[in-house]
Design brief:
2 helices; mainly alpha; single chain
Length: 44
């Protein structure tokens, strides 16, 4: 995969991720819950 294709793929995924978090409340809550679970298990 060339650098240009890699950059476009990463940019596309980032845009879809941001739109998903803003437009789909259940998706945003799921991600928030997973992040909080991860952080609470890593904090000691």
């Amino acid at each position: 995969m060339s650098w240009k294709n890699y950059a476009m793929t990463c940019a596309g995924i980032a845009v879809l991720w941001a739109v998903g978090l803003l437009a789909i409340p259940a998706f945003a809550q799921l991600i928030e819950g997973v992040m909080l679970l991860f952080l609470s298990t890593q904090a000691r």
